[in-house]
Amino acid sequence: MKKHVLLFLMSFMLALSMNAQNVTGKVVGSEDNSPLPGVSVVVKGTAKGTVTDLDGLFTIEASSKDVLVFSFVGFDSQQVPVGDSKQITVTLQTSANLIETYVVTGYGASVKKKESTGANSNVLGKEIENLPMQSFDRAMQGRMAGVQINSANGVPGGAVQVRIRGVGSISAGNDPLYVVDGVPLNNRGDGGGNVNTNPLAFLNPNDIESIDVLKDPATAAIYGAQAANGVVLITTKSGKAGKGKTTVTLNAYKGNTEPIRVLGTMNTQQFIDARIEAIKNVTTNPVLATIKGDVLAAIGYKRDLSDAEIAALPTYNWQDAVYKQGTADNYDISVKGGDANSNFYASASYNKQDAALINIDFKRYAGRLSVNHKINDKFRFETGINLSTFTQRGPYGDPDGTTAFGAPQYSAPVILPFNPIYNADGTYYGLPGSGTTLVGDLSHNVVATSNYIRANGTTNQVVGNLTLFYNITKNLFVRGLVGMDFRNVKSSFFGDPRLNDYYNSRGIYNQANNTNSNKTANVTINYSKEFKKHTIGGLLGTEYRDEVWQGESFNAAGFPSPEFTTANAAAEPSSVSGFWTGVKRAGAFSNLRYGFANRYLFNFIVRYDGSSRFGANNKWGVFPSVSTKWNISEETFLKNSKVVSDLGLRLSWGTTGNDNIDNFASRRLYGLGGVYQGNSGIRPTSLGNPDLKWERNQTLNIGLDYGLFKGKIKGAVEVYERTSKDLLLSRSLPTSNGFSSILENVGEVQNRGFEFEITTTNFSRKNFTWETSFNISLQKNKVTKLAAGDTVLPGDLSIRVGYPLFTNVNVPYAGVNPANGRPMWYDLGNNPIYLVRAADQRPLGHSQLPWGFGGVTNKFTFVGFELDVFFQYDLGRVMPNTQEFRLADNGAVLRNSLTYYWDNRWTTPGQITDVPKPANNRTEISGRVASYQSLSRFYQDGSYIRLKNISLSYNLPAPLLQKLHFKSLKLYAQAMNIKTWTKWTGFDPEFVNLNGNNNQGVIPLARNYTFGLQLGL
After folding, report:
1. Which position has the higher pLDDT, 50 or 982?
2. pLDDT tens per residue across span 136-176
3. In this structure, are strands 87-92 and 20-29 parallel, antiparallel, or unpaired?
């Protein structure tokens, strides 16, 4: 019996030993796939365990039926069945609670998320990583509630418009304050009139750790007179304290750009038919054969061409010649490391991208170095410097959008389609002096213009900071920062003498050299302490900022040959000019915080600011804010809830200021050019106003933070009212005193809004997760006050009391009279009339501001794959499609038109359409102008939903990485601006009216496809 028992026990032990095996593997972090040392690896239900080494590697004895539990501070624990695996790779996800632990509030300060009493939004750097965008402001689009972003145009590295919680100012600027690592930036774009520059394009977006937006005065008031339009805080990457290991990351992507849309324009035969019909419709007793002969002769053909000969005439596609596929390239390398006392981060990058229009591109070289060092227990310092140089080739004409005939984006759809682009010998057709001329109102060969002109801009920028910390006690420290933002923009333009505009002057050349120097310094004293159930904190600081702009420019003309393109070859220098301007600011500020039991929180901010821009009587202003939060989820009745994991109610009120006006707006100014009795002199040019002061934003905000089911559902709800007071406007004066107006604080605008953010974990299993993030912002804007006695801003009908800013005002379009095909409009009595009269203008019931915008992201992860699908939307903007204003003539003049207007024109009595019959010179038979081109015909809904980005990536598993001796390797592919759903019929509904031309001559955005890899060593 004993023998049998012994044999049974030996067999059992042998089976156990045979089932047990050594399992090896590697543990990496989800953020950058870098190895995680010190991770606890335990066989579930036992005391058997180990920890990972410096390379994240582990070995443990486990059976196929065991489950391994991986846990590490700052990461979500993960359980992995062993099964038949002898090698296991585990990617630990950064804890969502850790990500949300702290909120950046400015001047190096941060508070725990649950202790934040203000309205903030945040985007992590990894969410915008490797997007084919040249500036981080574009990458923020649709990702934050309350933050609306529109591209001015599709020029790479070009201007972007950012609006936080609506438009509050009429004349003093609505851009937020940008702060990079504590250094406030000058975000004034200045390309010398030749290129469209974005001062935020200096920074490689891949160097960004996070972007925090302060939306209400509970946080933004710490920046006082510069924070009326919100504050954007950019934190760049830095090294992390470790065990002396250095990580190298190589990243590269390459791809293509292409037009997101081209316009459907008439071919040669359609234009000839349209031209004949337009003349016939305004001719008494028309003879078709005569009209046909006249039309053919006027455009350079024989009068007696047969229908077959007309059908054989060629059509040249000018849009295909100027819109093209381009390239997008990015290469960057970063190195980071550190030990307990020091850490560093260094990077270098190269980025190049073409526009979808020929000979327009962006090229940037950028480098960053960050060094942090602990000198001793009392002192430590942080320093960082960003260096960049980027060059741009710009378009012909105004870089923001142009109606210049030589600009391809404006003229290509309008040039008559029978005009050839090239001569038989390959030279350009229609150049002056060549003996050939393009037929039509637009007679410039825009392909030649694009290839011959040279519009260039080079920006050299340095942004750096040095921060010193001194620990007085455990709870009290002093922080001092000095920073600089220095930018030089050199731009030049060469107008080739072979082109129409410069043939008679034998070519022109102009050059501008503009420099901005922005220096800042601030010192803060910071205190925090926790005792029992109480938490107190405070910050006291002072700041000084000095900005100077200066520049010179010159013009010259007369070049012996197009091969000589520099100023020394010019025959006649025509003008020289220069400028200097500057502003100084100083301020003192404090922030006091108190919390009880992490349930009841109070925050008070006050800032006292002075600016040289304002009048002698109002150079200084006080900007306070007060806010509170009740963490309801910390109350005993919810503390142990299995449903509610976070619930906090916030309330804030405060004021911020706006000083974005001309540096000398408050001064009485004198100018040169006055002549008295034959002698030159100076004369007054504007009245001063010693009472001029800040525009003030007063905001009331109510917010609710929520989290359900241990954070599987989380987000925030905000309701706010923002009243912008003391707006700077020109008040009319009797001209008898020599001036027609004076600048005063007389206006008021109100913005009310609702914001909603939600993130849900829809599905989470061992190898598969699905998360959704959604945000929407609803806002209502209204002008509540102008100068005394004014209900409409003089000179601008779109600004009127009781209506939103940028209200569309015109004579309403009544459609087409079905009986005769004539366009009609409504008079003030809503009676149809044929002529547009200024007296019948009125608000049309819509504005160019949206009532809603936002975005939605779905993220899927499966094993090593990750798929992100991002939609962005903008709702409610109604804008005049002024591009089609020039493309709806239907043969009325010698310009091409869209086929839409030809296919949908009125042709027979009783027909219902909104496109009138063609009419030569846009004139009725009676000889009276028929107002065919009244802008009210072309108002369109600019709302859109855009599939903005699809990103697919794959992280190689650890066993394969070990064999390759890599720390990480990610392969990825992305597509941008993929599909847009909109009623807008132009190139693209996303544009910003920077120059008054609306969408005329605006270069549209491009669609991008990129493929890349990210390698960690």
Report:
1. 982
2. 788 888 888 989 988 877 888 877 888 999 898 888 888 89
3. parallel
What is the phi/psi pair of residue 462, to 5°? -130, 125
At residue 451's C-alpha, the angle toward residues 445 and 456, to 5°, is 125
- Which pLDDT tens digit goes with each residue over 589-632? 999 999 998 899 999 999 999 988 888 888 898 999 999 999 99
For the residues 557-576, what does the mean pLDDT come to? 87
Instruction: Give the C-alpha separation, 898 to 908, whole Å.
Output: 20
Measured distance CA(960)–CA(376) in Å, rounded: 42
Contact (CB, 8 A) for 320 and 304: no
Please report the pLDDT score of residue 843 as a whole number.
94
Confidence label for 713 from pLDDT (cuts 50, 70 and 90): very high
281, two tokens: 């419709």
Q: At what angle do helices 288-298 and 268-280 cross, to 10 degrees?
A: 130
- Give the 3-state DSSP-derived string for 477-528, with helices as H, strands as E and coil as C: EEEEEEEEEEEEEEEEEEECCCCHHHCCCCCEEEEEEEEEEEEEEEEEEEEE
Residues contacting residue 970 through CB under 8 Å, at least 6 positions apart = 33, 953, 954, 955, 956, 1013, 1014, 1015
Q: Please name the residues in contact with 563: beta carbons below 8 A apart, sequence gap of 6 or more.
A: none
Give 993: exposed, middle or buried? Use CB within 10 Å, 0-12, 13-18, 19+: buried
Query: What domains does the chain contain, in order, with CATH numbers?
Result: 2-92 (2.60.40.10), 268-323+887-938 (no CATH)
The string of pLDDT tens digits covering residues 878-909 is 998 888 888 898 999 999 999 999 999 999 99
pLDDT, one tens digit per residue, over 200-246 is 888 888 888 888 889 888 888 888 888 888 899 988 988 876 666 78
Mean pLDDT score of the chain, rounded to an integer? 86
CB 608 within 8 A of CB 589: yes
pLDDT tens digits, one per residue of 841-877: 999 999 999 999 999 999 999 888 999 999 999 999 9
- What Rg do the C-alpha atoms of the chain give, in angstroms? 33
Query: 651-686 in b/e burial notation, b at 16+ Cβ within 10 A?
Result: ebbbbbbbbbbbbebbbeeeeeeeeeeeeeeeeeeb
pTM to 2 decimals? Answer: 0.86
pLDDT at 6 > cutoff 70 = no
Taking residues 119-135, report their average pLDDT: 82
Per this entry, what is the length of the chain?
Answer: 1017
Triad 146, 147, 151: Cα angle to 5°: 145
- d(C-alpha 576, C-alpha 570), whole Å: 14
Cα(177)–Cα(545) distance, rounded to whole angstroms? 13
If you ran DSSP here, which 8-state letter would residue 883 be given?
H
Q: Quick check: 72 and 40 in contact, CB under 8 A?
A: yes
Taking the CA atoms of 410, 416, 418 and 424 in sequence, report the sign of the dihedral they define: negative
Pairing of strands 120-124, 57-63: unpaired
Bridge partners, 852 (sequence order): 778, 875
Show the tokens assigned to 314: 């060629």
- Identify the bridge partners of residue 1014 per DSSP, sorted by sequence position: 251, 970
Could you report how far apart the first and last alpha carbons of the chain are, in Å?
A: 63
Give the position of tokens 């702290």. 102
CB atoms inside a 10 Å sphere around CB 443: 17
Q: How many angstroms separate the CA atoms of 714 and 703, rounded?
A: 14
216 Cβ contact partners less than 8 Å away, ≥ 6 residues apart:
118, 119, 165, 652, 654, 699, 701, 720
